[in-house]
Amino acid sequence: MAIKWEGVMPAVTTKFTTDDQLDLKMFQTNIEAQLDAGVNGIILGGTLGEASTLTYDEKRELTRFTKELVGTKVPVIMNIAEQTTKGAIKAAEIAEEDGASGLMMLPPMRYLADDRETTEYFKETAKSTSLPIMVYNNPIDYKIEVTLDMFEELLKEDNIQAVKESTRDISNVTRIINRFDDRLKILCGVDTLAMESMIMGANGWVAGLVCAFPKETVAIYKLVKAGRIKEALEIYRWFLPVLELDINPKLVQNIKLAEVATGIGTENVRAPRLPLAGEERKQVQAILDKAMATRPEITSEVLVS
C-alpha cells in the first residue's frame, strides 16, 4: 500500500492485560477509534509502543493483527530501532513479510555512530527492502542528529522519503523545505510543536496524545491545512497542557492514563515501567480531569473536510 507521508499518524501504545500479555481486544478498540477519527496511518513499535520490552513474536503478532484489522484503509508502519545494520535489515525483512506498508527508522541504538556510520546504516537498510522509509530524527532523546548534508546522501535511495522531525528546532522545517523542496516529506514528531510545524509547511504529524484524543488531533491537522487557523488554535490551546505530557520521561504512563480517561486504553505497562503513583499521578490526573471537563466538541464537518 502506497504511503503519502501526510496527515496524522498515531504512534500507538501497545496494550497489555493485567497478566502482562498482549491485550488485542483493547488494542482493537483504540485502533478503531483512530480510524473513525480519520488518521492517515498507524505506527507500531515506537517509544510509546514499548518496543524495547516486546518479544520478537509479539512484534510479529502486532503487525499481522493490525494489518488484518485496518486492511487497505491506512498504511501500517513498523518502527525499527536496532543496534546493528544486520539487525535493522532483518527487522525490515520481517516487517515486509508481516504486511507492513512502510518503516520508521531510528539511527543505531546504544553505539554513538558518527555521520558516516549513521548514513551507511540507513542506506544499507534501505537497499535491502522495497518498503518506503521515514527517518526518525530525534537527537534530543537518541543523541544522533541526521543533518541536512546526511539527508542529501540518504535521498539517493528512492525509498527514503520522509523525516519524523523531532529536533525541537521549529526553523528546521523551513531549512528542510528550502534544501529539498518536496523530495523529503516532513512529519512533526513533537506534539507541542505540531501546529507550529504544520503552519511552517510540515506535511503531517506523528502524534502521541492522539492515542487518547484522536478526533481533536485530526481536527487540528485538517483545520490548519484548510487555513482555518483561528479554529485550530482554539482546540490547540485547550490541548497544549495535555500535549506536554508527551515531552516527559514518563510519556508512556502519561498517555496510557489519558487513554483511560477517554475510554480507549488501560494503564497496564510492561516492567520495569510501572503505572503512575503518588503525587506524580495526581498531577497528571489533574491535567486530564481539567481537559475532560473542558473538552471541545469536534463536529463531523471538521473531521470529513
Automatic annotation (TrEMBL):
Gene3D superfamilies from the UniProt entry: Aldolase class I (3.20.20.70)
Keyword tags: Hydrolase, Lyase
Gene Ontology biological process terms from the UniProt entry: N-acetylneuraminate catabolic process
Keyword Hydrolase: yes
CC terms in the record's Gene Ontology section: cytosol
Broadest EC class assigned to this enzyme: hydrolase
GO molecular function: 1-pyrroline-4-hydroxy-2-carboxylate deaminase activity; N-acetylneuraminate lyase activity
Matches recorded under Pfam families: DHDPS
InterPro entries the record matches: Aldolase_TIM, DapA-like
UniProt-listed Enzyme Commission number(s): 3.5.4.22
Family: Belongs to the DapA family.
Name by which UniProt lists this protein: 1-pyrroline-4-hydroxy-2-carboxylate deaminase
Organism the protein comes from: Christiangramia flava JLT2011
Taxonomy of the source species: Bacteria, Pseudomonadati, Bacteroidota, Flavobacteriia, Flavobacteriales
